[in-house]
């Protein structure tokens, strides 16, 4: 599954999940996808709040009073909350998802309008997944979708970009999985180009992790 490679990456009734936390429009759902070697590579060079491993993120909104998630996984699309939560489970059968919420004081200071932000996100529905992780090309990876959704006004971002790296911090060589990935795409590895990732977003100073549905894997040793 192409989009599950990164996002930097059985249906249940919603049941008890809806009881555990009261979600709000604009909340961010950070997910540990466990998508294989590429997710492993992502998590080795990035980390989230409290050292948690995140490789995907989606945005909550409500449709007919039901919680939904807009995400860039296989292109930009909408899924119901249960589908998102049940994508990956921990050893106890709980979702490997944490909920991030922008602090009220920051939102007020920035004049954030969540309804307008989500309307903007909906304009991207149907866009292709951004395999090359390049900003401003009308394609989107998961973090880029969040970034574009929360541009305050026309060009003022609230989330910060940072240089990408595809190099293993231990071997100092490009991860073999990434080398193979970009060779198949026929494009150069975008080492050092500005981008975003779910882990970095989850550590934004204006964001709070308000809830963890399940046991999200964490780094025993954080590498900066």
Tags for this model:
endopeptidase fold (from Nostoc punctiforme), disordered C terminus, 224 residues, 6-stranded antiparallel sheet
Task: Return Rg in Å.
Answer: 17 Å
Q: What fraction of residues sit in β-strands?
A: 15-25%
* CATH architectural name: Alpha-Beta Complex
Shape designation: globular
| Tally of alpha and pi helices | 8
Overall tally of structural domains: 1
Helix content: 25-40%
- Sheet with the most strands, sense and barrel status: 6 strands, antiparallel
* Order of helical and strand elements: HEHEEEHEHHHEEEHEHE
CATH homologous superfamily annotation: endopeptidase domain like (from Nostoc punctiforme)
CATH fold-level name: endopeptidase fold (from Nostoc punctiforme)
Q: What is the name of the CATH class?
A: Alpha Beta
Strand order of the largest sheet: 4-3-2-1-5-10
Termini separation: 29 Å
Helices and strands: which structural class?
A: alpha+beta
Stretches where pLDDT is under 50 for at least 5 consecutive residues are 1-6, 8-18, 220-224
Total E-strand runs: 10
Report the average pLDDT across residues.
Answer: 87
Structural summary, described in words:
The chain is about 25% helix and about 20% strand. The protein is globular, with a radius of gyration of 17 Å. It has eight helices and ten strands. β3 and β4 form a beta hairpin. It is an alpha+beta fold and about 220 residues long. The longest helix has 10 residues, at about 175-185. α5 (about 115-120) packs across α6 (about 140-150). The chain starts with 16 loop residues before the first helix and ends in a 12-residue tail after the last strand. The protein has a six-stranded antiparallel beta sheet with strand order 4-3-2-1-5-10. Strands 6-7 form a two-stranded antiparallel sheet. A two-stranded antiparallel sheet has the order 8-9. The chain has helices spanning about 15-20, 35-45, 80-85, 105-110, 115-120, 140-150, 175-185, 200; strands spanning about 30, 55-65, 65-70, 75-80, 95-100, 150, 155, 160-165, 195, 205-210. The protein has one domain (about 1-210): endopeptidase domain like (from Nostoc punctiforme) (endopeptidase fold (from Nostoc punctiforme), Alpha-Beta Complex), CATH 3.90.1720.
